[in-house]
Design goal:
The chain contains 13 helices and seven strands. By secondary structure, it is α+β, with helices and mostly antiparallel strands. The chain has a five-stranded antiparallel beta sheet with strand order 3-7-6-5-4, covered by helices on one side. A two-stranded antiparallel sheet has the order 1-2. A hairpin with a 2-residue loop joins β6 and β7. α9 packs across α10.
């Protein structure tokens, strides 16, 4: 019997698999699978927070405690599903790139990362955050390009505005992944596509010329960025920042995700210094310099500390009016 699922499946699926009919998704055996042993407690849905904000469409979808990821590999596209299995994680993959996706599964699940509880907390607030979130792990996605456009879009604009722009771009230029993937799962737009489009084509998605040009420049160097996966994160950030328009803020966010760098501390952000200072020193406002001073005891794990504080629910006092949302699509 076909497995009933709560969505209207497309008539056909890409890659390996079978056809689907309205209201049903047939059970499709994976092209590759493996069981990943986890060294301690873990929380797969936390991957969403570690990898970054996701919109309605994108390369990461959470269904309950299961994580779906769509990725392009050197062998072709793939769909990867990570499911909890007691003290382990079951990884299944479909498509031409299934073998490569399975090889990346342990790092995407966080199996090679130390749990947050293993950090020696030097402050009572951080100790409490770690006590409440001991299963949060930093992951290494093994790819750079998927994280670049959404991070560039978030430069100098609100998260919601950047998310709407990215969702529109994925809907327009993204692709369906192979196998029995959820309908919201999409492969990100290919670098070759983003390199060739005119900047005016991004205007309907609320992207002005400056950020559009940065995305186009980054797309032309996507192959070089992917080759940094064999380099230390510091070298990856240097290569990223060689592109005009990509600075320390963007490179840190990207390498946190692509390289799993626990020390890729975010500077140049409006909110993060205030959050760190409020949590660790009770100061409502702070500069990057003050934030780095407070994070110095955690050298080597500063990005992890920032991540834990961002997921803690702590918020510093807010002063002044909120930043006005600006919609450029009709201009």
């Amino acid at each position: 019997m076909p497995e009933r699922v709560p969505w209207r499946a497309p008539r056909t699926q890409n890659g390996a698999g079978t056809t689907a009919t309205r209201g049903y998704r047939r059970l499709v055996l994976p092209d590759a699978s493996v069981t990943v042993e986890m060294p301690g407690p873990y929380w797969l849905p936390g991957t969403r927070g570690v990898i970054g904000a996701q919109g309605p469409l994108g390369p990461l979808v959470i269904e309950g405690s299961t994580v779906w990821r769509a990725l392009d590999t050197r062998d072709g596209p793939a769909t990867l599903r990570l499911s909890p299995a007691g003290p382990a994680v079951t990884a299944e993959a479909w498509g031409p790139g299934a073998g490569t996706a399975i090889a990346q599964a342990p790092e995407l699940a966080g199996a090679n990362d130390v749990a947050a509880a293993d950090i020696v907390a030097r402050h009572h607030v951080l100790a409490e955050v770690i006590r409440r979130r001991p299963r949060v792990r930093m992951v290494r996605t093994g790819t750079v390009w998927p994280h670049l456009p959404p991070t560039i879009l978030a430069q100098k604009v609100q998260t919601d505005a950047a998310g709407r722009s990215w969702n529109g771009m994925v809907r327009r230029w993204g692709r369906r992944p192979p196998g029995p993937a959820p309908p919201r799962l999409r492969l990100v737009p290919e670098p070759a596509t983003m390199a060739e489009i005119g900047y005016h084509e991004l205007h309907p998605f609320g992207v002005e010329r400056k950020r559009a040009e940065i995305i186009r420049r980054a797309a032309r160097r996507a192959d070089r960025f992917e080759r940094t996966m064999g380099d230390p994160p510091e070298e990856a950030r240097r290569v990223l920042e060689s592109v005009p328009g990509i600075g320390p803020w963007t490179s840190a966010i990207v390498t946190q995700q692509s390289h799993g760098d626990p020390d890729a501390v975010i500077v140049g952000d409006y909110h993060v210094p205030h959050l760190v200072a409020w949590a660790l020193a009770g100061e409502a406002r702070a500069t990057d310099e003050r934030m780095l001073e407070l994070l110095e005891p955690y050298a080597g794990q500063r990005a992890r500390v920032q991540l834990l504080l961002k997921t803690s629910g702590l918020t510093p006092p807010k002063y002044g009016p909120r930043l006005e949302m600006v919609d450029i699509r009709g201009r």
